[in-house]
Write a structure and sequence with these properties.
With 291 residues, this protein is an alpha/beta fold. The chain has a five-stranded parallel sheet, with helices on both faces. Helix 9 crosses helix 10. Pfam families: TP_methylase (PF00590). Catalyzes the 2'-O-methylation of the ribose of cytidine 1402 (C1402) in 16S rRNA. Belongs to the methyltransferase superfamily. RsmI family.
């Protein structure tokens, strides 16, 4: 086992993963532009869309198509080029490569061939929607596009409905109404959700409320644009506290004596009893007690 060093002299080439704007060209970073200019080749999901992007930023680098339908053919070609020393930049139509877009297979192949893989930070719809959602931003679980139908969709919705983390789902305007109804059936009408659409574009908009409220909204309004759904996690059910305050303190002390760090011990005792970690922390340290 060894580390992959991204920025060292290497006889081989390199695979750069370059995010592109999700709607606003001003979100293109200086580093992304320079990387695309310095690359020997740009592997693009759709060469027509990417050509427009390159033209806008006056990037003359040659393009080659790389999408879900030619992956098996292209990967050996691209690996051979990088083994010969070429620098290849991979882009998708919008956002980061591999995130609900082609790319992960090429990354795996490059790693297997001991070719450096260098990711660039940049635009991504999921986190952009999350931080403006008004729903707890962490922890979160990114799912992407739901299966369209059948057992896979049913199982996915059932699994997601039980998660305590905030969930991020992508959806097209043509399936938003159906997905909202499926979420009501599996998550309950009161679960909170934020729908973000047309992110970074002139018609960017957010719809926040319960699933029931959102369903009613779409009875009178047609969905428009690509959507990111930010769904609140399953609420923690109130648990009956079976142990007294003294018992909780003793339980924390017992774990610490067994070698656990205090914060971890507090977290574990809180989880066992369905309590907030902060409440057990305050209790253990005597915070808030009357003097």
């Amino acid at each position: 086992m060894k580390e992959q060093r991204s920025f060292v002299d290497n006889s081989k080439g390199c695979l750069f993963l370059v995010p592109t704007p999700i709607g606003n060209l001003e979100d293109m970073t200086f580093r992304a532009v320079n990387t695309l200019k310095d690359a020997d080749l740009v592997a693009a999901e759709d060469t027509r869309n990417t050509k427009n992007l390159l033209n806008h930023f006056e990037i003359p680098t040659e393009l080659i198509s790389f999408h879900e339908h030619n992956t098996a053919q292209r990967i050996p070609e691209l690996i051979e080029k990088m083994n010969a020393g070429l620098k290849i930049a991979q882009v998708s139509d919008a956002g980061a490569p591999s995130i609900s877009d082609p790319g992960k297979e090429l990354v795996k192949a490059a790693i297997k061939a001991d070719i450096p893989v260098v990711p660039l930070p940049g635009a991504t719809a999921s986190v952009t929607a999350l931080i403006a959602s008004g729903i707890a931003p962490q922890p979160f679980y990114f799912y992407g596009f739901l299966p369209r139908k059948g057992k896979e969709r049913t199982e996915a919705l059932n699994d997601l409905s039980q998660r305590g983390e905030t969930t991020i789902v992508y959806e097209s305007p043509y399936r938003v109404k159906k997905t909202i109804q499926d979420l009501i059936d599996n998550f309950g009408a009161e679960r909170q959700i934020t729908l973000a659409r047309e992110l970074t574009k002139i018609h960017e908009a957010f719809l926040r409320g319960s699933l029931e409220q959102v369903a009613k909204y779409y009875q009178d309004n047609d969905p428009k644009g690509e959507y990111v759904l930010i769904i609140a996690g399953k609420p923690v059910e109130a648990a009956t506290q079976d142990e007294s305050d003294d018992d909780l303190v003793v339980a924390v002390d017992s774990l610490i004596k067994q070698g656990e760090k205090p914060n971890k011990a507090i977290k574990e005792v809180a989880a066992r009893n369905g309590l907030k970690k902060q409440d057990v922390y305050n209790l253990y340290h005597g915070i808030g007690e009357e003097q």
